Amino acid sequence: MKGTVQTEPRRALEARPRLEYVSPDVNIFETKDGYVLEAEMPGVNKDGLEITLEGNEITIVGHRKSEAVPGTPLFRERTLVDYRRVFELDPAIDTARIAAKMDQGMLSLTLPKSERVKPRKIAVD
Amino acid sequence: MNSLTRWQRPELSTWPGFGRLTDLRDDIDRLFESPLAEWARTSNLLSGWNPALDLYEDKDNLYVKVELPGMKREDINVSLHEGSLSISGERKSEQTHEDAEVYRAERFFGRFQRTVTLPTPVAADKVKAQYKDGILAITLPKTEEAKPKHIDVNVS
Description:
The complex is a heterodimer. Chain A has one domain (19-67, 75-117): Immunoglobulin-like, CATH 2.60.40.790. Chain A contains no helices and 10 strands. Chain A has strands at residues 5-7, 20-22, 26-30, 34-40, 49-54, 57-62, 72-76, 83-88, 99-103, 106-112. In chain A, the strands form 3 sheets. A 4-stranded antiparallel sheet of chain A has the order 3-4-10-9, with no helix packed on it. Chain A has a 3-stranded antiparallel sheet with strand order 5-6-8, with no helix packed on it. Chain A has a two-stranded antiparallel sheet with strand order 1-2. Chain A is elongated, with a radius of gyration of 18 Å. Chain B is of the alpha+beta class. In chain B, 18% of the residues lie in helices and 33% in strands. In chain B, the strands form 2 sheets. A 4-stranded antiparallel sheet of chain B has the order 1-2-8-7, with no helix packed on it. Chain B has a 3-stranded antiparallel sheet with strand order 3-4-6, with no helix packed on it. The longest helix of chain B is centred in the N-terminal third of the chain and has 28 residues, at 20-47. The radius of gyration of chain B is 24 Å and the shape is elongated. At the A-B interface, strand 3, strand 4, strand 7 and strand 8 of A face helix 1, strand 1, strand 2 and strand 5 of B.
């Protein structure tokens, strides 16, 4: 079964309902220009996507478009739960230039590194 | 080392107060969660990509929904043969950065196939398939003979 069920912990002094999410599978690559993160969230389109940046943590939440269940289920493998995953960012990432693209249930996040962090050749006179 | 992974949480050497207890709980949850996730993935690795599939039925149709995120419509094949619906295809990796370092590779690429034996006969020429938001939705109308018929009971 893909993904794992992740429950949000109850905060000590707040009465908060336990929400259940599934952790989407991701691929993360690093190139010299930055990072690329691909997250699989079938059933989520652009409108259901919520990406928040807090400090150096990025939280990706994908709300599935609610589906009308057609008829009676004979066989079910899909978990119709929303997606959530949190990542801690490399400080080298230029957070102002993070770009997101959503296509067929797959989120592509491009996280460029700040210019000054990239290796540069220094000319010697 | 700073890297874009879920694991880089700061050490709990700073313990200013009560608020940190929930972060500890967070860490413990992740500790227990991650090894199971890794294990689930290695078992998947041996059997290949197995996209999740649902099968539904109402009086007129059968419905199949398969989760296939990040694919191109032309790479998905749907075929019907002797009462079995077969969904197969190949997901090709779009990234061809030669200089890219892979940090996490949880997603599957390559071929997959799912076959479902249909509980009732369907009209093959009326089957419709739609691929939207990464979900392949197939509607298979039942043949007339397969639809439930109302039978009058005569009482004499």
